[in-house]
Amino acid sequence: MAEERVQRVPTSPRGNRIPARGLPKQKVKKGTVTRLIKAITKGNLLRLGLVIVCIIITALSSVASSLFLKTLINDYILPLVQTRSGNFRPLLIALCKMAGIYLAGIIAVFLQNRTMAVVAQGVLKKIRNDLFAHMQTLPIKYFDTHTHGDIMSHYTNDADTLRQMISQTVPQTVSSIVTIAAVFVSMIVTSWHLTLFTVLFVAFMFFVTGKVAGKSGKYFMKQQTSIGDVNGYIEEMMQGQKVIKVFSHEPQVKETFDKKNDVLFENTYNANRFANNLGPINNNLGHLQYVLCAILGGVLATRGVGGLNLGAVASFLQLSKSFIMPVNQVSQQLNAVVMALAGAERIFDLMDAAPETDNGYVTLVNAQKLNGQLFETEEHTGMWAWKHPHGDGTVTYTELGGEVRMFNVDFAYVEGKTVLHDITLYAKPGQKVAFVGATGAGKTTITNLINRFYDIADGKVRYDGININKIKKSDLRRSLGIVLQDVNLFTGTVMENIRYGNLDATDEQVIAAAKQANAHSFISRLPEGYNTMLTSGGANLSQGQRQLISIARAAVADPPVMILDEATSSIDTRTEALVQKGMDALMKGRTVFVIAHRLSTVRDADVIMVLDHGRIIERGTHAQLIAEGGTYAKLYQGAFELE
Amino acid sequence: MLKRLAACIHEYKTASIKAPLFVSLEVVMEVIIPYCMGKLLDNGVTPGNMTYILQIGAVLVLLCVFSLTFGVLAGRNAAFASAGFARNLRHDAFHNVQRFSFSNIDRFSVASLVTRLTTDVTNLQNAYQMIIRITVRAPLMLVFSLIMAFRVNHRLSLIFLCVLPLLAFGLGVIIKHAHPIFTRVFKTYDKLNRVVSENLHGIRVVKAFVREEHEKEKFNTVSESIYSDFVSAEKLLAFNAPMMQLSANSVMLLISWFGAHMIFDSGNNAAAGMTTGDLVILITYAMQILMNLMMLSMIFVMLTMSRASAQRIYEVLEENSDLKNPPQPVMDVKDGSVEFENVSFSYAGSEDKLCLKNISFSVRSGETVGILGGTGAGKSTLVQLIARLYDATTGTVRVGGRDVRDYDLDTLRGQVAMVLQKNVLFSGTIKENLRWGNENATDEELEEACRLAQADGFIREFPDGYDTFIEQGGTNVSGGQKQRLCIARSLLKKPKILVLDDSTSAVDTKTDALIRKALRDYIPSTTKFIIAQRVSSVEHADKIIVLDGGEIEAIGTHETLLGHDQIYTEVYNSQMKGGEE
Q1: Distance from the A177 Cα atom to the nearest Cα atom in chain B, whole angstroms
Q2: Which of A235, A324, A483, A607 has the fewest CB atoms within 10 Å, measured from its CB?
Q3: Same domain, A375 and A332
Q4: Considering only CB atoms, which chain A residues are within 8 Å of B298?
Q5: Closest Cα to residue B507, out of A598, A69, A357?
């Protein structure tokens, strides 16, 4: 057999791979903040409105409570003492009033907390759902080039960074702004000179905070990246646990893990170190402001500038204390904000990954034939048609037949590395077309083009005479049944897994499909038959059994065209013969593409294509090819001429 | 549980102690600074004493520098300690996971282990940082304030003591209800991870069957349950802050009411008892107590949440592997002989769902054994017992004359090379993947192994040759290429026993034959087990085992089986039929 070539070269440059070390761009993108705000506010305006009202009530209640003490003493207790009347009634009333105000504040806090819980979790849910929905539209290539665990990390670790921010930072910030605004007005009234100074100082505080937060943000970003990396590594190693054990490779795996773990530690430490500095820095800058303000105020008052007297300076100092405090609170929240931004940016990056392009407009519809003419119908008729709208507004219908043609197709996964050369083929409805060739000859690639996992230039592939790039991807794929080399089953019952092929299938249909795939007998022997739960992707089944289920899954979909990519490679030949029989009955009148190494699988095909290095080198029926005495014949005889 | 987790603090103990120490010093500064500020206001600004302002101002600046230093040091140590704690947790957990048997892993599921090692550890890390930073501060301030309050007026301060137990009770009730919800939430996180992971692994199936909508629904259901659980947990926690405020405010009102009476009684005379000044101070302390109570309750919330996470990490740390090394393990495998004596096996560990029943056979070192059998006959299960991936439920498996359970696991597996049916390559270059077999293999040895496995040819055709990057799961090489790389990887171990579990199914027959020839010629003394579907792959074996339904149907050579054993003959004929056309 001829030498082989790579089927798919890794995409390069692998820029989007997760950098474990090094210095990837770590500045938060400009748009992230706006997008995050949009994500939070969208659909939550009413709730956020309620929250703001609650916050204002809370703030007012706390202002009232701070004023209350003075009133209590001056207006109630002192008169009581002075008059010695012993009439506590006014005091009781005042206290009751105060109790009412407190109560309002308490209720407001309660409402605010509950509403924010709904808002925060709602936003997270929406982000997760959007993320998943978008992920479903991404091209296969994306999944080939990102580790699964890293993608998973977006849903948990990155989304979690947002939780704290939304539920705490947002209300905290709003309440601080309310307080700041109120105090600011009183400050201006007291002394605009000192206010100006205070504002300048606060600007300075923000500047310093921004610097520190930026540093910490940089590391938070790295932290999220390395968490993704660690997540990816754990996931991959867990999936390959058997191989690790077989090679006793645990020490090496541990070592690599420790390295990644150390990087994560470094980044977490640095991120938190800078973030933890925010508190002390701002607190003490606040104290400094107080001292400087006192000195400045003292100087101004003794010189009589701006009509400032010492009493005013004293009250200004008190005010500035209550001004700086909320400013501090906000800046300490920055910690949560930068972390959330790091998570948000990763999430948005995934959301921005370009989806599969699909400009198809030809759709698959249920059809009915009346007087030789095709009509679209609502109900399932068992007959399908391609609905083809044209530029001039007319619509034509083409009956779904399952004819596939390829014209001079060249294809490269990576530019410059052509893996298919000048492939021309013709599969009539009902024909069985087989691809034979060494591994890496390009067999799977051809089927990848038919179902548009990868796209090529217009017009090269036609399905029932229609350019497949014009067919909507989902409709195209619905018309193709594919059994892949690697079987993927999902957690759920056997029944559910087979039904994956056709969600509307009845239990009877599922069982019929299983019988056709010759899977029925082993399924019946499972502890709970069709209701046996498959866990970890059917790890408790043998590879061959998994393949049988996967064939049943395709059978229940009942598609006009079927692609079997090494679908029976792990099934013993006796069972395969039975499967084959069932499949032949099923596929009568339909087009089948078969890829197999085992020549017994392809012998009865209508046409066999022998592929080598991405080219079709021979084609014909089994008998023709044997007669030709070419590669196929040699291969065929070779199977029985070992030695 | 706490003890085991605390063990992970390990080398970060110093930082964990330093952090609260610096926090305490910071608290001291925080108490002194407002006192000085008050002095500055009363004795400096109000009388207009510029020198005093400057003097106290200088002292204040100095205090600020101290406070800043302590604060930064506290923060740095806290960050160091908590990040280190998390690092050790992940380290210990991952290392323990590597010791797990498959039944251990099945018990947790892959998705759950991933969540536990990342999300749960992060929760614990945050909680730990909070503990060492705030847990010292809040109670310290609380106690300080309470003492001061008692010094001012102990009778009134008793009100605090009445409220505190009530508060503790309320908090307890909230936590008691919130804890189970959080435990549930993290289980749902596992589910979320599982759905995403299965979707990622099966993305080709999803796309081929156009099941994106179905997958979205599946995901949204999980997402919805996370949402509702979290909301109900947080709604419970929402009682927390109002409850704190309610009690603090009640205290304030009560103090005002009783305080007013006491002041009335004393005539606002300090000598006779309570004064208005005392009242002001008491209320200020009440405010401070409120603040710290809030902080404490926030810590409790954090702890509630992390308690669920702690439990989950603890489970991983404490899980003992089902496969244990014997106390005095045998460190050397004598030869490649293999013997099964009455071996039965069940994945569930129960006697009624046996995958293998009463298997007995023996193989001499250097022999080639073919294993044939229908789908689900137990072929893969059988060979996995040789490398002790699982332990036989009953009966004994012997390698080199010793029970496999007597060997040191690494020693045994070092001598039994398995090429698994479900091959896995890891993301990394071809070279890196090959070196799994032998870390210290030279380039020549790598190439030699690849030549034997018939992989050298195609590797050389890659633009990057042996440095070609393999994506996760080996998606960028074809099935046959993957299988040959895996064979080469196993050959590098230079094992005494080589098991090929249907590992040439995607390789064409000619290459298959070449591989077998190479194995025979170059490693003749290695015992070879070959599971295959093709008769041609096993017909020249010294021994062929035909399995059916978990039992040995027949053992023999091609000659003795053909025509005598029904299954073997049928299989042979089904494959030979074509050749006779």
Answers
A1: 20
A2: A607
A3: no
A4: none
A5: A598
To the nearest whole angstrom, how far is the Cα of B87 from the nearest Cα of chain A? 6
Chain B residues with beta carbon closer than 8 angstroms to that of A328: none
Same domain, A306 and A379: no
| In B40-153, alpha helices (H) | 50-99, 102-108, 110-115, 121-152
CB contact under 8 A, A129 and B241: no
What backbone phi and psi angles, to 5 degrees, belong to A366? -70, 140
Q: Which of B 554-573 lie inside 8 A of A, CB atoms?
A: 567, 570-571
- Residue B88 confidence (pLDDT): 94
Give which of B11, B113, B114 to mutate to test A binding, by max A Cβ within 10 Å.
Answer: B114
Print the domain residue range for A92. 30-352
Q: In Å, how far is B214's CA from the nearest CA of chain A?
A: 9
Q: What is the CATH number of domain B338-580?
A: 3.40.50.300
Is the confidence at residue A7, as pLDDT, over 60? no
Contacts of A199 (CB under 8 A, 6+ apart): none
Over residues A403-456, the pLDDT tens digits come to 889 888 888 877 777 888 888 888 888 888 998 877 677 888 888 888 888 888
**pLDDT tens digits, one per residue of A70-84:** 788 888 888 888 887
Residues of A in contact with B125 (CB under 8 A): 268
Q: Is A453 near chain B, with CB under 8 Å?
A: yes
Instruction: Give the pTM.
Output: 0.82
The CATH fold of domain B117-319: ABC transporter transmembrane region fold (1.20.1560)
Report which of A90, A165, A168 is spatially closest to residue A127, judged by C-alpha positions.
Answer: A165
Residues 133-162 of B with CB under 8 A from A: 133
Q: Flag if B375 and A250 touch (Cβ within 8 Å).
A: no
Q: Which is higher by pLDDT, A416 or A51?
A: A51
Domain boundary among A399, A422, A454: A399
Q: Which two tokens stand for residue B184?
A: 């549930």
Instruction: Convert the pLDDT of each residue in A240-299 to its tens digit.
Output: 787 787 777 788 888 989 999 999 999 999 999 998 888 888 888 888 888 888 888 888
Note the helical H segments in A240-303: 241-246, 250-303
Q: Pick from A246, A261, A273: which is nearest to B387 by CB?
A: A246
> Tell me, what's the ipTM?
0.82
Contact A467, A534 (CB under 8 A): no
In angstroms, the CA A446 to CA A441 distance is: 10
- The rounded Cα B249 to chain-centroid distance in angstroms is 45
Interface of B with A in 226-265 (CB under 8 A): 226-227, 230-231, 234-235, 237-242, 245-246, 249, 252-253, 256-257, 259-261, 263-264
Chain A contact for B119 (CB, 8 A cutoff): yes
B41 Cα to chain A: minimum distance (Å) = 6
How far apart CA B553 and CA B568 sit, in angstroms, is 9
Q: Could you tell me the sign of the dihedral formed by the alpha carbons of B38, B44, B47, B48, in that order?
A: negative
**Pair A153, A196 in one domain:** yes
Task: Please indicate, yes or no, whether residues A38 and A179 belong to a single structural domain of this protein.
Answer: yes
**Crossing angle of helices B479-491 and B509-522, rounded to 10°:** 0
